[in-house]
Write a structure and sequence with these properties.
It is a single chain. The protein is of the alpha+beta class. It is built from 19 helices and 16 strands. The longest helix has 31 residues.
Length: 664
């Protein structure tokens, strides 16, 4: 069971900050397996083990746990136990719309072998099969499931152990088992698979233009009604492209979002009480010049940065502790409880802050302009801001721990956040401009952040429910409970925006009342709006009949290979093939879709004919059956680019072949 995706739009900052950066693509076979066999004789009655070392050669790929298995086929008089997999990382998978366990690094699967007391001395062959299936993370391209047959010789008695040289070749030291630190399973989309067109090659054609090939194909894909969806998809794509575990560090877009998150945090009521202390410590009101004030303000911000950067370095040295911990339902529940407690402080249930005596002493430590005092009070400011910065900082630490970044990238990430948080102090310390006094507006700001913290609480509770459900525990009541909780939160947020009790009294503000109604409407729409059903391209599943019809009618063909485990295929079906302009242009084509979820004889033959290594794979064929290979899709294409390719295919297929000499 999962929490409804639209609800995450009610919590923009946590959604953005759970993204992380990307690395390089391995275009070759990204996975491997090898047997690890006993190296010493085993006495009768003793226990040993054989193992499969799964290898992930590129940081941009991962292996699904539920698509991996080790099955013992032959034990030659010995007894084999159940294969023991290490624990992977649980991440939400768009393909199945549920949490799934994955591995992004090498891992080892042990199979216990018991030698009977009466076992004959000598070599006993253990034959087993290793199954796996995985995907590319940044481009979301999935390879086909594969099986590897392996063997080991288990020597009983005093003979010398010998592993099968064909199956266990390679130095295991080159691929040691590692603690897995996988990353988000964001939906499969594109890849660089080696796709080969069928042979022999037909006569070459000049690639046609992208001009509208007919009135049916003259439309504009993704019309004005889809602007918001396209912008959202673009942002999701940019962030998803940066979500590779083990990458060298955060990307530029991610750092920009983190910096803006720091700026937003500086505008919270937790930070505001430090502003007069900042002015006092830096001494900006004294006649010391802007240059001195600016230098002191920089040192002050350096103190803030020191506080959070130390946390980032600690997370980097934790060997994934933060990321692993956030897969534990108890930890997720604990984080949610802390956030809810902080939310209560925003609503005035209790006050959370440093004792005034401590902040006053920190203020005096500045000595009216000393650099040491400015740095010390800057570190205090970072701590005072904790009630409002805590949710963001926790998620950043989780991102660092999950991705296994080094000390420098982790420090850069937290330094970026610290600089965003310190921008307000830098401006105030340098210019000491007039500031609005605390008053009713501060209470409104506190309540707004209280609602945000409640939303963060529900986010983590939802993650806790997902992890528990993924473990096999049915929580049928949880979905209804979360829906009620989100509804109450939306209503509460709208009430705060509208002015709370003032909206019903004499001090009501029309603008705020309208804002509250809009907030309520948008929030409830995101929660309860049903998914709109769209028309889509009609596909045949008869390959030969479709190609014969295309040749007879003189129409080009769109040939789509799909599978249930291919999320990019589903994205094409739900986003691209439902676009009105694409749908209309499809009338100019014969369309055939081949399902490769299971290895049917037809699919196996076509996979071999087209040299398909993974999915998605979409081909444009001219009526004679020759492939316009420049247009081959190896992943998701948005509707506008797909429509462009459709026009190019039509114009290309209508042109005469150049010559057979240039084929190939």
């Amino acid at each position: 069971m999962t929490v409804m995706t639209p609800r995450l739009l009610l919590l923009v900052v946590p959604t953005l900050l759970l993204a992380a950066p990307a690395g390089a693509v391995d275009k070759d076979d990204p996975f491997g397996t090898q047997a690890a066999c006993p190296t010493a004789p085993v006495a009768p009655g003793a226990t040993t083990s054989v193992a499969v070392e799964y290898q992930v050669f590129s940081e941009e790929f991962f292996i699904y746990r539920d698509m991996s298995s080790v099955t013992v086929n032959e034990v030659a008089g010995l007894t084999a136990g159940e294969a023991v997999f290490p624990k992977g990382k649980v991440k939400f998978d768009k393909v199945s719309e549920q949490d799934r366990e994955i591995f992004s690094h090498n891992f080892r699967v042990e199979v216990p072998i018991t030698v009977p007391a009466d076992a004959a001395a000598g070599s006993h062959v253990v034959a087993f099969n290793a199954r796996l299936q995985g995907c590319n993370k940044p481009e979301n391209y999935c390879l086909f499931p594969e099986n590897q047959d392996l063997t080991c010789d288990v020597v009983v008695g005093g003979a010398t152990a010998a592993a099968d040289p064909d199956e266990s070749a390679g130095d295991p030291a080159e691929a040691p088992p590692a603690v897995d630190t996988p990353e988000a399973v964001d939906a499969p989309t594109v890849a660089d698979a080696a796709i080969v067109t069928p042979a022999p090659a037909p006569a070459a054609r000049s690639l046609g233009s992208s001009d509208a090939a007919s009135d049916n194909c003259a439309g504009e894909a993704g019309g004005s009604a889809g602007v918001v969806a396209r912008v959202t998809a673009w942002l999701e794509g940019k962030l998803a492209a940066q979500s590779t575990a083990g990458a060298s560090g955060p990307g530029a877009l991610f750092l920009l979002l983190v910096f803006l998150g720091g700026v937003a945090s500086s505008l919270t009521p937790c930070v505001y009480p430090m502003i007069p202390i900042t002015v006092s410590v830096i001494g900006a009101n004294a006649d010391q010049g802007k240059a001195k004030s600016f230098s002191l303000a920089c040192v002050y911000v350096g103190g803030i940065a020191a506080t959070y950067t130390v946390l980032g370095v600690a997370a980097a040295g934790s060997s994934g502790m933060f990321g692993s911990a956030l897969q534990n339902p108890w930890v997720l529940g604990g984080v949610g409880t802390v956030l809810f407690a902080l939310a209560l402080s925003m609503f005035g249930v209790y006050e959370f802050g440093l004792p005034s005596a401590l902040t006053n002493r920190a203020s005096m430590a500045g000595g009216g302009g000393g650099y040491v005092g400015a740095f010390v009070v800057g570190t205090v400011a970072g701590i005072v801001a904790a009630p409002c910065t805590g949710p963001i900082v926790l998620m950043l630490l989780a991102v660092i721990g999950t991705n296994g970044w080094g000390l420098v990238p982790s420090a850069v990430l937290m330094l970026t956040y610290s600089l965003g948080l310190g921008m307000l102090f830098l401006a105030v310390g340098t210019f000491a401009g007039s500031l609005p006094r605390s008053g009713a507006w501060m209470e409104t700001v506190k309540h707004v952040f209280g609602v945000i913290l409640v939303g963060a609480t529900l986010y983590y509770v939802g993650q806790m429910i997902n992890v528990i459900s993924a473990g096999g525990t049915e929580l049928g009541w949880a979905d209804l409970l979360m829906t009620v909780a989100w509804t109450v939160t939306v209503i509460g947020g709208a009430w705060v925006v509208a002015g709370e009790k003032d909206v019903l009294g004499e001090n009501r503000n029309l603008a705020r009342a309208v804002g509250g109604v809009l907030a309520l409407g948008v929030g409830l729409f995101l929660l309860f709006a049903p998914e709109k059903e769209h028309e889509a391209i009609t596909w045949s599943d008869q390959y030969q009949a479709t190609l014969s019809s295309a040749k007879t009618e003189g129409r080009p063909v769109i040939l789509d290979f799909t599978a249930d485990w291919c999320a990019a295929c589903k994205e094409l079906e739900h986003k691209t093939y439902t676009d009105a302009a694409v749908l209309q242009c499809a009338d100019e084509f014969e369309t055939v879709m081949i399902d490769g979820t299971t290895d049917t004889p037809e699919f196996v033959e076509l996979k071999k004919e087209y040299g398909i290594k993974g999915l998605p794979a979409v081909y444009f064929l001219c009526p004679e059956g020759d492939v316009v290979k420049e247009l081959t899709l190896k992943g998701f294409e948005p509707a506008d680019r797909f429509l462009e390719k459709m026009n190019i295919a039509l114009n290309t297929c209508r042109a005469e072949p150049a010559s057979t000499a240039s084929a190939g």
